[in-house]
Structures are given as C-alpha cells and as structure tokens.
C-alpha cells in the first residue's frame, strides 16, 4: 500500500499536481491511500480530481474508502454559545 499525504490547501492550483502524483502512483501500486488529514481547505477542483482518481481506482478493481478520518472540528459561533442546539 502506498500513502500520498496532502498538506495545506487542495484547490485549483494544487489539485492538478496532486492528481498527477496519485495517477503516477496508481500506475505502480495495487492500493493507494490519499491522506487528507493535513489539508486545510478543499475546493470543487480538488473534489473533482479526487472523484476522477476514485473512478480510475474503481476501474482497476479498487475504489474509494476512508482511513481513520479525523474528528469534526469543534462548533464555532452561535451554535457553540447555544451548546450546539
């Protein structure tokens, strides 16, 4: 299994680079995990790249999955003051 860790913002300018790197890894590995725990932001371009990679993995007999996703961030603003209600 190969892990590709992504850190920082995964947006239009970086999504293409990440997609190319994971594509390259998919050519030589049977299982690839894209670790998004270090990302600070994802936009629609990043989501599109991740969905395209998941489709490619599915065609190769794999598919998307989750590996120890981080807990959701704490509530902020009005919801936190109201106790999440």
Characterise this structure.
- Helix 1 links the parallel strand 1 and strand 2.
- By secondary structure, this protein is an alpha+beta fold.
- The longest helix has 17 residues.
- It has three helices and two strands; from the N terminus they run βαβαα.
- The model has no long low-confidence stretch (mean pLDDT 79).
- It has a two-stranded parallel sheet.
SSE layout and pairing:
Blueprint: E1 2-10, H1 12-28, E2 32-42, H2 44-59, H3 78-81
Parallel strand pairs: 1-2
Helix pairs in contact: 1-2
Features:
85 residues, alpha+beta, 3 helices
The parts where pLDDT drops under 50 for at least 5 residues are none
Q: What is the string of helix and strand elements? A: EHEHH
Overall mean pLDDT stands at: 79
Output the radius of gyration: 15 Å
Look at the helices and sheets and give the structural class. alpha+beta
Order of strands across the main sheet: 1-2
Count of extended strands: 2
> Quick one: biggest sheet?
2 strands, parallel
Q: How does the overall form come out from the CA principal axes?
A: globular
Helix content: 40-55%
Gap from first CA to last CA: 42 Å
Beta-strand fraction estimate:
15-25%
Number of helices: 3
